[in-house]
């Protein structure tokens, strides 16, 4: 798994800021929607997923976009452990979400 995060303390490059701004202004639809604005967003998401997959040498279906760090952490945890191995407890400390994992063995 490759985790790419800009981090709150890292300045984005100008080209990323310009691209994100353009998409937020022009391609703002919900990609799950059936209307034309949503379909334009779905196509942009499809293209982005394929572009990243090509760069990383993997399949587009292996690329996941999340809205932030906590969601990405949970995605990684839930995809890495069988459901029977959980529970997962989330604890918030200040402005950072902490995730504590207790892996329970089957039959315990």
Please outline the helices and strands.
Layout: H1 14-26, H2 36-56, H3 69-80, E1 88-93, E2 96-101
Antiparallel strand pairs: 1-2
Characterize the structure shown.
43% of the residues lie in helices and 11% in strands. With 108 residues, the protein is of the alpha+beta class. The chain has two domains: 11-65; 66-108, no CATH class. A two-stranded antiparallel sheet has the order 1-2. β1 and β2 form a beta hairpin. It is globular and about 40 Å long. The chain starts with 13 loop residues before the first helix and ends in a 7-residue tail after the last strand. Mean pLDDT is 75; it is low at 94-98 and 101-108.
Number of domains: 2
Distance between the termini: 30 Å
Characterize the biggest β-sheet: 2 strands, antiparallel
Looking across the biggest beta sheet, what order are the strands in?
1-2
Provide the structure class: alpha+beta
Oligomer: single chain
Average of per-residue pLDDT values: 75
Strand content: 5-15%
Number of helices: 3
Mass-distribution shape: globular
Order of helices and strands: HHHEE
| DSSP, total strands | 2
Uncertain regions spanning at least 5 consecutive residues: 94-98, 101-108
